[in-house]
Amino acid sequence: MNKIIFVKDLKMKKQYVLICMLVATFQFAQAQFTLDGEFRPRTEYRHGFGSIIPDAADAGFGISTRIRLNAGYQVDAYKFYLSFQDVIVWGENRQILPYDQNNSFAIFEAWAEINLGKGWSTKLGRQAISYDDQRILGGLDWAQQGRNHDAALIKYKKDKFLLDVALAFNQDYSHPTGFVNGGTAYNTTGFFSYKTMQYAYLKQSWENLTGSLLLMNNGFQEFDVNDAPDGVSNLQTLGTHLNYKKGSFGAALNAFVQTGKRQGEVDVKGARLLGLDFTYKATPKVGLGAGIEIISGNDGGAGETGAFFPLYGTNHKFNGFMDYFYVGNHANSIGLVDIHVSANFKLNETSSLMIKALNFSGEQDLPSGENALGTEIDLVYSKAFKSYALKLGYSQMFASDGMYELKGLPKSAVADMQNWAWAMLVIKPKFIN
Questions:
Q1: Per the count of CB atoms within 10 A, which of 104, 209, 239, 242 is most buried?
Q2: Burial of 353 by CB count in 10 Å (0-12 exposed, 13-18 middle, 19+ buried)?
Q3: What angle do CA 82, 136, 241 make, to 5 degrees?
């Protein structure tokens, strides 16, 4: 009798498990689940990347790899996204080391977007924030580590209009002067790391024109002479991006100003960025471009500045790929005038070549009266294969006298050749789509 009951009980358990599996399968089918990855090794030869290199210095050469695993889940009520990332520099760990010496493994993105109905939603968590041409806010995808923000967004979209309002409050729970003892001091500094951020972004699209407006405030933690928390300096960035395209012709405008206070309680007055670019598709295989960007520099006295800094954009995309300006450098300096021309050639169905020439000068003169900084040439070759892509790049800087003065090196001590070359393989497998 007990054996019969046991068999019936076992059958009921199997049926229960089967029902649960069917329910789970049905629910999974109703949702959209994606799982993909990225494998991106890049080899770089650096002989003047980021700054001019002295003649006595050896060139740099190394290989780094970005690895990402991304999972997305979507139902009617919400979206969820998780991205794990590690950046590996070849050889950074000694043999049989039981841990990652670089400690580069991180959660690059982890957010949920909840549907509130009637075009409204809220997006919460760690996320890449990117708008327009990424001049002020961008994901910085070129950098192996990328750029993200911990923020809460309220989003609205209807037809060709969208509105994003964002709030961020950054904190260091583990620091003794911070949350643990009841305070809210934020001890992370450098690279315009902010304690608070608020912004509103509005965008409207028409037939041939899109226009956006950004109003952003960033609060930076200040400290007194004894390293005790001493208030917050608030910097406001306001501006617009316009993009026009009709037929073979295109034009884009960036116009931004900054005011308020930067880190160190420095008054910001008259800081501005103005950029204008034109594109023209001469033939189905040839695209041409030309433009100018003017970024104001420091023309103030002690305690104030007129220098604009593009903050959290994809700055590698602008002012030359060799990253001489506004990529962890050139803050509060003489500003920049960047005049550039470019050509994109579609070589065949799977490959292309981009050539760009940029001429740089200071928006103000250097102490010597010089302001010519130099000319940079950038070349990028792209080749798409069936399931991966290869990119090759070469850049060369032809420095002028002003560049040596700006970088603090006499011309006689600088290497004749200032160049940078790289090769990058991009593989993005889609495990579940």
A1: 239
A2: middle
A3: 115
Look up residue 163 and give its two tokens.
């509105």
pLDDT in tens, 34-89: 999 999 999 999 999 999 999 999 999 999 999 999 999 999 999 999 999 999 99
Give the number of residues written for the chain: 433
CB-neighbour burial class of residue 101 (10 A; exposed 0-12, middle 13-18, buried 19+) = exposed
User: Residue ranges of the domains in the chain?
Assistant: 1-30, 44-63+162-432
Contact 373, 403 (CB under 8 A): yes
Which pTM value belongs to this model?
Answer: 0.90
User: Which amino acid type is present at position 93?
Assistant: N
Q: CATH for 44-63+162-432, among 3.40.50, 2.60.40, 2.40.30, 2.40.160?
A: 2.40.160
Instruction: Record the tokens describing residue 201, joined without a space.
Output: 């972004």
Q: H/E element holding 232?
A: strand 229-246
Closest-CA residue to 363 (of 268, 271, 226): 271
Q: Strand, coil or helix: what is 186?
A: coil
| Digit-coded pLDDT (tens) for 198-215 | 999 999 999 999 999 999
> What distance in Å separates the CA atoms of residue 90 and residue 36, rounded to the nearest whole number?
23
